[in-house]
Amino acid sequence: MVAAVDLGSxxxxxxxxxxxxxxxxxxxxxxEMVQLAAGLNKKEEIxxxxxxxxxxxxxxxxxxxxGLPPGSVxxxxxxxxRRARNAAQFLAAAQRVLGHPIEVIGGREEARLIYLGVAHSxxxxxxxxxxxxxxxxxxxxxxxxxxxxxxMESLSMGCVRGSVHYFPxxxxxxxxxxxAQIAAQQELQPLAARYRAIGWRECAGASGxxxxxxxxxxxxxxxxxxxxxxxxAKLRKALIAAGSVQRLKLDGLRSERAGVFPGGVAILIxxxxxxxxxxxxxxxxxxxxxxxxxxxxxxxSREDVRERTVxxxxxRTHVDAAQALRVEHTALLLxxxxxxxxxxxxxxxxxxxxxxxxxxxxxxxxxxxQHHKHGAYLAEYTDMAGFSRRDQQLLAVLILGxxxxxxxxxxxxxxxxxxxxxxxxxxxxRLAVLLNRSRNARPSPRIACAAAGKSLKITLPxxxxxxxxxxxxxxxxxxxxxxxxxIRLKLI
Length: 492
What we know:
492 residues, alpha/beta, Nucleotidyltransferase, domain 5, Hypothetical protein af1432, six-stranded mixed beta sheet
């Protein structure tokens, strides 16, 4: 049993499925229009009322998810949670009522997962396809082939933001539409020429706005097969004729969608015009389905996109693969010995330590001096497919803390258990780097490691230690560094 929850800017979605012979069998779907983006005030904070709506929804979702084990549920937050200044406060409360951790993903990661969900819902094709998703706070445009996204963009425009800003108090006029479309075209301008030059054979739309437009144009008899330019022109005319959201009476349009419909339609028209689209079909899959299929890839570790991302980044930054492998081997060996005492049982702990070891020297591609800081910057700000913002933040802190004084303050701002777990993983990475400083190709000796609370004991083979005076000196210095982080290191 697996489940995915999408905390969108307009609606929250949940999908529960069973994995049967490697395929997903959907058991349950829930959707509630929470309109989180509409709950942002002028300070870019989620209002108390909007938080109450969201938490009430998540309590209901939490009831359905109760009993599913850790790791079988993935919850992702999108544009509004990326923007909100009080997102951390809301997320802490949301995780308590939902019963599962929430990760906020970047715009391009959202685009990748949307494409994955759409691609799995369409018939297989080797031709390039354009996928468009107009959400409440952002719009994603992806060109891909098969199940592989090739070009991804996430733009800061959505149906909620567009409706609130360009159609105030629900008023709809020709002037309102023109302003909304021009603003959307300005957002699209940097990518329009490039996307048109790349080209595609088919175009598919996903999620609420495009599904709603499809329902309306079909119910009105304006288009039987997908959304066309002609049907959009008729829809725009009908919206202007209505004059306001309150007087909007269109077959196929749900009343709960009406308030954010004009902004979404304006964005869709701008996309058609900017990219030269003549017809768009709608797809059943979207972000939540993409999250589920990504989870399947993680369960089959060889298909975990994060592995490919780390490999790509290591190659791009010319990491010494042999040294990285030595550090990884030592770090995971130490982790096995202290996992129980330091409560590092989550499989993600081993993953993040492994990836930090593989990338710990990527900052050398910029400069040897302060390379740990350069590497941390790359880990935090590079678009890393498969990684959430929290994952990249933790990866960056581990790379930053691999040498010198431990950045205790950087661990203090990590969420929940990661404050302590992150610090402990950093200690293991530091020791692994230190013990492999000689870059010796010969296998390192068996190193015994034991932890108890804030104490750590390392036992080195005497014959080996006697031949490593530099390592011995580094370990003696490490005692002082770890003491500054509240950890007592004892060497035997």
